[in-house]
């Protein structure tokens, strides 16, 4: 039987982690709901350590009433915690990056975090048309297994944790990010975004999301035509981040939530699908502040604006086809290279808006600006006139040759 320990025992070696934990929500779990959780059996299973262990079928159940301590998340080695104290490196308590560890408590109708996050294991999930943090990258994008660790930074929890130690948007911290063959958790789980000892975000604000959801700063350079998920670049200079609108970050729109309804027993929403849900976002039931200025009807306004951007993109694809034909007709001419650069930039601007995925909502001004640029550049290629071919040297020599022959013939006559 693995004997239980007190957090102070761990503090002897892990003082930094202890100090962080000691001021966290986990350390204060007994005080939730004014301390009433200690007396409600259904609450103790996630707020009181001994009840948690008992519910999980563990043997190291102590008689004392304690909050959520080290032992809840770090299961003992086979030989027990004492063996770890005697020979720390030989007997290591479990360290897991899985979402299921957190999901043991963060579940059910009051806080269905694990149920919302785990879209991958639902019948409705379509890997071809949908994306989810719960989707294992080694299954969805197996080609990444043959790439370097730059992809690991955002495609796995093993990579995200060291990558986020550098808060800068394009700082991947690759020296500490493992190579693909050493990755254990290919999903983006709870601890990728939340530091488990503090239970707080690893980075505050939209920089957390922006560290992965960015296009690596790609620009229209005449050669680049593809850009992937430029969400940060689209959002960063938008009205939501520049002061022209009340500051609105990623989680404000992508994690719309509402509390459990004690009267109707309607399940809470925590926003851990990270989907944009306008009906909830602009609802009076939402925990967001959007309803203070916008009512439910504003969702239709958003949809109308998105439809206009979608129409513009489809129209541009027709212009792109015409531009492609015109460009091919210029192949071999002196103006081909400059028109190729214009064409590539036009494709880039169109793809930027399309790959952002918000259909303008992240930054309506920039979306329209880029689509205008794309349209102008495509049409500049279409409107370029094919140069009239001038006779070459051989043709001129041939003409002069014929004239000379004609002159000789006339002279003989």
From TrEMBL:
GO MF entry, a single one: nitrite reductase (cytochrome, ammonia-forming) activity
Alphabetical list of SUPFAM superfamilies matching this protein: Multiheme cytochromes (SSF48695)
Source organism of this protein record: Methanohalophilus halophilus
Chain ranges of the Cytochrome c-552/4 domain: 9-74
GO cellular component: periplasmic space
PANTHER family assigned: C-TYPE POLYHEME CYTOCHROME OMCC (PTHR35038:SF8), DISSIMILATORY SULFITE REDUCTASE SIRA (PTHR35038)
Gene3D superfamilies: Butyryl-CoA Dehydrogenase, subunit A, domain 3, Flavocytochrome C3, Chain A
Pfam families named in the record: Cytochrom_C552, Cytochrome_C554
Keywords: Signal
InterPro entries xrefs: Cyt_c-552/4, Cyt_c552, Multihaem_cyt_sf, Multiheme_Cytochr_ET
Protein name: Cytochrome c-552/4 domain-containing protein
């Amino acid at each position: 039987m693995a004997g239980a320990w007190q957090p102070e025992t761990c503090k002897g070696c892990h003082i930094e982690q202890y100090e962080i934990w000691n001021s966290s929500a986990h350390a204060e779990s007994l005080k939730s709901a004014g301390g009433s959780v200690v007396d409600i059996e259904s609450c103790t299973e996630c707020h009181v350590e001994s009840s948690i262990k008992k519910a999980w079928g563990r043997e190291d159940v102590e008689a004392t009433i304690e909050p959520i301590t080290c032992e809840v998340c770090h299961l003992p080695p086979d030989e027990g915690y004492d063996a770890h104290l005697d020979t720390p490196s030989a007997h290591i308590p479990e360290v897991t990056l899985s979402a299921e560890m957190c999901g043991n408590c963060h579940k059910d109708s009051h806080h269905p975090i694990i149920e919302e996050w785990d879209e991958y294991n639902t019948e409705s999930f379509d890997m071809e048309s949908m994306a989810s943090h719960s989707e294992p990258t080694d299954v969805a994008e197996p080609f990444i297994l043959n790439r370097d660790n730059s992809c690991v930074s955002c495609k796995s929890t093993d990579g995200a944790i060291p990558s986020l130690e550098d808060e800068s948007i394009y700082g991947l911290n690759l020296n500490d990010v493992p190579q693909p063959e050493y990755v254990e958790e290919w999903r983006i789980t709870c601890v990728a975004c939340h530091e488990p000892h503090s239970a707080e975000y690893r980075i505050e604000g939209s920089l957390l999301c922006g560290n992965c959801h960015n296009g690596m700063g790609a620009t229209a350079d005449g050669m680049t035509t593809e850009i992937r998920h430029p969400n940060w670049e689209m959002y960063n200079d938008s009205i939501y981040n520049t002061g022209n609108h009340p500051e609105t970050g990623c989680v404000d729109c992508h994690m719309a939530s509402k509390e459990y309804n004690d009267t109707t027993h309607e399940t809470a929403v925590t926003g851990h699908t990270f989907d944009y849900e306008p009906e909830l976002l602009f609802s009076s039931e939402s925990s967001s502040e959007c309803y203070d200025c916008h009512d439910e009807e504003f969702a239709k306004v958003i949809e109308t604006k998105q439809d206009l951007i979608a129409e513009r993109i489809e129209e541009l694809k027709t212009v792109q086809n015409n531009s492609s034909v015109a460009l091919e007709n210029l192949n071999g001419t002196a103006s081909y290279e400059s028109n190729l650069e214009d064409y590539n930039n036009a494709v880039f601007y169109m793809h930027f808006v399309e790959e952002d995925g918000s259909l303008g909502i992240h930054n309506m001004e920039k979306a329209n600006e880029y689509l205008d640029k794309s349209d102008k550049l495509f049409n500049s290629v279409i409107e370029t006139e094919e140069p009239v071919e001038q006779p070459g040297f051989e043709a001129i020599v041939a003409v002069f040759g014929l004239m000379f022959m004609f002159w000789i013939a006339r002279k003989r006559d």
